[in-house]
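Entry type: protein chain
Record version: 2
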Amino acid sequence: MREVAVIGIGQTKIDEHWDKSLRELAGEAALAAMAEAQVSHVDSIYVGNMLSDISNLQAHLGSMVADWIGQRFTDAVKIESACSSGSAAFRAGYLAVASGEVDVVLVVGVEKMTDSPVSEITTALATAADADWEVDHGLSFVALNALIMKRYMYEYGWQSTDFAEFAINAHANAVHNPYARFRKAITESSFKNSPMICDPINLMDASPVGDGAAAVVLACSDMLPSNASKIIVAGSSAATDSIAIHSRKAPLRLSAAELSTQKAYEQAGIGPQDIGVFEYHDAFTIMAALSLEAAGFAEPGQGPVLAKEGEIKITGRIPVATFGGLKARGHPVGATGIYQIVEVVQQLQEKAGKTQVTNHDFGMTQNIGGSGSNIVTHILKRVN
């Protein structure tokens, strides 16, 4: 396998982009990444997206993006794995370059969600759950996470307010991210007083949807000057679990995350103690806690301790959501995995501004599809 480097990144602000179409959002991020990479042509394009055929009545995004950005006739496909679509597309691009089949790949994550009524988006997001055994019984995606959180609180003795610091930390970091949807700090009081969505999940426990796109250009690192600093993919792994929560032997453990993280650590030759920044999948605060535990930063049931003790802050042991995370940056589902990659690249390049971490040798992203049924983990390494 060849060594693969990220040579260009691009992103759009996450917002309600009434003035931009799906193709325009994807094109803006893609062309920005190609411009930074100083490439005018790529060998392949991988587009991560979950909902376009439902919310935008547009499938076949590979061809659409390739044509729009002037790459007609280029090999291009859309990849879907629910909310982990972005990272799944990145992994496909990484494997294509690492195998030697291609030299330069563009990976784009894009989602346009706010043009559709909330009820339609809620229904569309539920397609990531088990249609027969969960959705047909009236469970929305929020409800599924609420059930997990309620059981977690029962098993380990936590209160719903014990999850506040996950959201507070994310919003504090998003203040400094011009691409974030909600650049406003929140307090413990505003968390406690936010409206209940599905007990015990309140508004501040949940990430917002939005429109946005992010992109990266991957290339064989041999193409870069030998004396150039670079960001390489040190670990890439994916794993699945049952799509229905009730079929899991340990529903309060993200077993697929544990497996994919362990494989990524082994590939990179490191452990949790070496990770300087972790962009986790905080679609809900309960998922933040479970991800920290699955990745080896906390024992089962102890994820909230890291948040309450300040260990997830920029100056803490394991900084997370350094650009706002899904909670405050926003969660345009198919694009989220690429936003995470872009943000870790910025950290390793020491271009994170006021939320720059001090340990910037290794960074990790973890993108969750469904309620934990498809999880993709990547470790990036800075090489000077």
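Comment: The chain has 13 helices and eleven strands.
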